[in-house]
Predict the structure.
Amino acid sequence: MCVGMFMAILDIQVVASSLPAMAEALDIAEDKLSWIQTSYLIAEIIAIPLTGFLTRAVSVRWLFAASTLAFTLASIGCAMSDNFVELITLRTIQGFCGGALIPTVFTTIFVLFEGKREALATTIAGSFAMIAPTLGPAFGGWLTESYSWHAIFLINVIPGIVVTAIVAATVRVGEPDWKLLKHIDYVTVILAAIFLASLELVLKEGPKRHWSGEYLYLLLAICAVSGIVTVQQCLARKEPFVNLRRFRDRSFTVGCILSFVLGFGLFSATYMTPVFLGFVRGHGALEIGKIMIVAGAAQLFAAPFAAYLETRIDARKLAFAGYAVFAAGLILNGFQTPRWDFGEFFWPQVLRGVAIMFCLLPSTRLALDGWPKDQLSDASALFNLMRNLGGAIGIALVDTVVEQRTPGHAASLVAQLQAGSRKTAEFVGLPLQYFHDKALGPVDAFTKSLVEPLVRKAGLTLSFNEAWLMIGALFVLSLPALLLATRARPHRS
């Protein structure tokens, strides 16, 4: 089961370094590239809160085996995709099935093991969960350059078949109660999916269309209506799709806010780094993976220290330190130049990698400590849902910033270069001997053709900088929320 979970987590990170290669192979526009990640995340958001219910309905054995098999088949489909729509559809199926695998592993641990054996099993599962994002970018880059981008999906086939067979043959946790499937709130599930998909489209299309036009108004209406009805259904039903009443607890709410912010920063950084390295620096998938592995290695190094301190220091203080350090790593990236490479990315990635567990562990404790066992699965599902929701919204907003701001930055750079700005010429990467802070004369067509790609990359860099600083500011703004949290205490129903 840990191997199946490893596959699901790896499949987010292994794709990251290969995004530019996939864009070129399938002729995917830059502004649509983020859907490869967000479609997976949105599907996970839908699957996570359903997992507890499905576990009771079909048993851990059959839920995990069926999810792994479907995940494997969807992986084959992704590898065979020859257009954008097919790939996104199959990535959505992958995400839904992968979302069922991760929480089911930890549910099984609490059922099968007690005492020291439970702690050992949790450590083993946690190690699998941590190693996946560490290896993902470099492994994905190596597969793409050594074979092709199709290989990053095909590596799931053999492990997927083996895991499906072993789990179906050996796992005996709970008995299925098929009648429970009738009680799933299918309408709310569909409405939630419509709400999330339309929200992503609104965030992407709104600025592009200047927040006007029939298409955008229709999207806004669909988003608002589906969102309101989803919330109303979740509050009205006895066994809701997502139990929003949990937000009545202050510490839980603070933990969920922090989880949302962490997802926003974590998934946005994982998306922006390969796109910058691919489209600005021109690196291949393997080189991108080698650069991105720094954050994963730092996370792996810091994890034991975070686990040790997490039980000895007030969760609020530990979270404050973690989110402040993560913010510093984001803000450092906000001063990129078009020539940034491994050396310049090293320390921002180290800061973010070290900070991840110091963000995740205390925010988890704030949110989940004290809940009765029969309520813990629902609370955990909502907490994890918030992190993926933050990631999906974060990537959409980053995409919007980059797409909308790049043309303006490029035009501004051109104007500054025509005025002879040496500082701008240095940033863009042009020979300084032609710039003396005086207006330049007419530029011939050949020179213009050489300068234009450099200006576009420089404009793209400035847009990325704004996105990095935006996310860093969000992390800073989240810190005061810790003042509202209380120490862990028992929860009442």
In short: Residues 488-493 have pLDDT under 50 and may be disordered.
